[in-house]
Amino acid sequence: MSSAVRVTIWNEFLQEREDEAVRRVYPEGIHKALEQGLRDYPGFMIRTATLGDPDQGLADAVLEDTDVLIWWGHKAHAAVTDETTARVQRHVLSGMGLIVLHSGHWAKVFKALLGTHCSLRWREAGERERIWNLAPSHPITQGVDDYFEIDQEEMYGERFDVPEPDQLIFVSWFQGGEVFRSGCVWERGHGRIFYFRPGHETYPTYYHRDVLRVIANAARWAKAPVRMDDACAMSEPLETLPPPVSGTEEE
Q1: What CA–CA distance (Å, rounded) separates 82 from 88?
Q2: By mean pLDDT, which of 175-189, 205-219, 227-241 is the weakest?
Q3: What is the gyration radius of the CA atoms in the chain, in angstroms?
Q4: 154 in a domain, yes or no?
Q5: CB neighbours (10 Å) of residue 120?
Q6: What sign results for the dihedral spanned by CA atoms 111, 194, 32, 121?
Q7: Can you give the CATH number for the domain in which 92 is found?
Q8: pTM across the whole model
Q9: Which of 186, 182, 185 is nearest to 171 (CA)?
């Protein structure tokens, strides 16, 4: 059996077709830029899927064949159906890894898994972002220096309305003064979740060497050691039980 990590990169793929400013940066779509970037790292089997595909690109057959799902969404969160959301959530709880990028913080499935609004402050001003590595021993940060910088990015600022992360991996500082918990991990059920902030659609963030390195590292980490469907089944005893004791009548 292949030990390669089976990755599905999901993208709405709307703004790249509708907005010339986005198309100039990602002419084939953000999902294709991510796919090309991850191919520089060994050990992955990669497919892409989009909102316009059958079953919104996320049929059970696709999810069953996916170790780690990478999610990028922005303007069409509401278009993802409740049925699609439930399927993805079920597979994450069963052990499929989930990497949520940038504006995917408002994806239905991310909010469903974390149980909060997942809201934040934002500003689009093309400012510098400095991303600090807080967990240099974590698998997600391997090969990443103490910090790296992105020349132009959309600002995300606190308060980020998410549950306390199991571990905080990165924190960002922005030129305008805000800070943000830009790399967070959680476990839900058998699944591992990583939220990673960088990636506005009009900036070439997904060509950045360190951003791609982090996503590749996260995809390896997020492949859970087990894949197990939920089963709330009646359990037969392993040992012989004594007969139940009947109640006694009051004298």
Answers
A1: 10
A2: 227-241
A3: 21
A4: no
A5: 20
A6: positive
A7: 3.40.50.880
A8: 0.94
A9: 182
